[in-house]
UniProtKB/TrEMBL annotation:
Binds to the mature mitochondrial complex III dimer, after the incorporation of the Rieske protein UQCRFS1. Interacts with UQCRC1 and UQCRFS1. Interacts with ZFYVE26 and CHMP4B. Residues 28-49 are annotated as: Disordered. This is Tetratricopeptide repeat protein 19, mitochondrial. It comes from Eublepharis macularius. It comes from the Eukaryota. Keywords: Electron transport, Membrane, Mitochondrion, Mitochondrion inner membrane, Repeat, Respiratory chain, TPR repeat, Transit peptide, Transport. Residues 28-38 have a biased composition (Basic residues). SUPFAM superfamilies: TPR-like.
Length: 387
């Protein structure tokens, strides 16, 4: 049963982070998950507050997609009602903008209060567009705060309003919500729903993109829609890959990452922040399979690009480079890279990464000592045989 069918069962009026550690399998080794904070589809402004911890399944960045962006606000501003309705709409827009600013500043409780005010005014004025926009922002906020049940209800409410407005099920807005719902189900360990959600998003986008291949070059809106569809496919593949990696299916995750990386390179370019993160994540999937040389090649390229572009998560990528060197048993080089990553993490004020790298340095020392002991024992054994 598709996610679409499952969501259709919902009543129409139903409504009631620190860097991520990705499980990489093999000896329990982990990698820090860099965050690109991309803005590849739409122009969403929601940012992850520095103090909030985000579950692994939320690895699709909420800032990457925003169903209703500033364009929606501008649409509301362009065509206001007269008199009292116009004033109400202006108040809703003001509350929404203020709430989004609070989210960016990490003032989440104040943002929630403002959004509830906006929702109340939207219902009182029966402004469907404002209701949808407000609910979507409220859902993203609940998502960020780890309020999964509440976020699920809000996202489903947004979807219900959109479908009631005759929006097609393969519209990018519907698929975006479906992708977020899949991440929620993954975090809740509702695996069947999570897998159905990822499958729905990827298959629907693949079919849609194939149908859009004959778009005329001078049809700019259609061309933009085609680009957005492909980028959303890339984001879906990325999110699914992270899910697979967390469930120790590294080979399958690798295939998803490779496809997502190809899309990002072709559409956004090799130096785009999201492209760099995908290279790093692909390296993680390869490393989890013991394919250290291939993993090193990808993470080294990601690190080179991160340096060139002053990537905000460069210290995280450098940490992963050190981890792969450790797995290759290049302990001396790994220690040097870890120390540089530690220095950069301290400079960035990233306490979580600082603590993580210090633990990794301790693990490196343990492995290095163990390797030396093994080497010494083997050498003594060989000398005994000769004698």
């Amino acid at each position: 049963m598709s996610l679409w069918v499952l969501l259709r069962r919902l009543p129409r009026r139903s409504l009631g982070v620190a860097p991520l550690l990705a499980a990489a399998g093999r000896d329990g080794r982990r990698h820090l998950q860099a965050k690109a904070r991309p803005r590849s589809y739409g122009s969403g402004n929601a940012q992850k507050p520095d103090g909030g911890a985000t579950p692994l399944a939320f690895s699709l960045a909420l800032s990457a997609f925003s169903l209703f962006s500033q364009e929606a606000e501008e649409e509301m501003e362009k065509d206001p009602e007269e008199g009292h309705a116009e004033k109400t709409e202006e108040n809703i827009i003001f509350l929404l903008k203020k709430a989004k600013l609070c989210i960016m500043k990490g003032e989440l409780e104040e943002a929630e209060h403002l959004l509830h005010e906006a929702a109340q005014l939207s219902h009182q004025s029966d402004n469907k567009q404002a209701i949808i926009y407000t609910y979507d922002t409220m859902a993203n906020l609940a998502f960020l705060r780890g309020q999964l049940d509440h976020a699920e209800k809000l996202f489903k409410a947004v979807m219900s309003y959109l479908l009631a407005g005759k929006m097609e099920q393969d519209d990018n807005a519907i698929i975006e919500i479906s992708l977020k719902l899949a991440s929620i189900y993954a975090a809740q360990k509702r695996q069947e729903l999570a897998l159905a959600g990822y499958e729905f998003c990827i298959l629907t986008l693949e079919e849609k993109f194939a149908k859009q291949k004959d778009v005329a070059a001078d049809d700019l809106p259609a061309q933009e829609e085609r680009v957005n569809t492909r980028l959303l496919l890339g984001m879906s593949l990325d999110s699914y890959a992270r899910y697979l990696l967390a469930h120790k299916q590294a080979a399958a995750a690798q295939r998803m990452y490779e496809r997502a990386l190809q899309i990002s390179v072709e559409v956004q370019g090799e130096t785009h922040p999201q492209t760099v993160v995908l290279m790093n994540d692909l390296a993680t999937a390869l490393d989890a399979q013991g394919r250290y040389d291939a993993a090193y090649a990808h993470v080294k390229r990601a690190w080179d690009l991160a340096q060139q572009t002053e990537h905000p998560e460069a210290h995280v990528i450098l940490n992963n480079l050190a981890g792969i060197l450790m797995h290759k048993e290049d302990f001396s080089q790994a220690r040097q890279v870890y120390k540089e990553a530690l220095k950069q993490a301290e400079k960035a004020g990233d306490g979580t990464v600082v603590r993580y790298i210090r633990k990794e340095l301790a693990e490196l020392a343990r492995r290095w000592k163990q390797a030396k002991t093994t080497e010494y024992s083997a050498k003594k054994g060989n000398e005994g045989v000769k004698n």
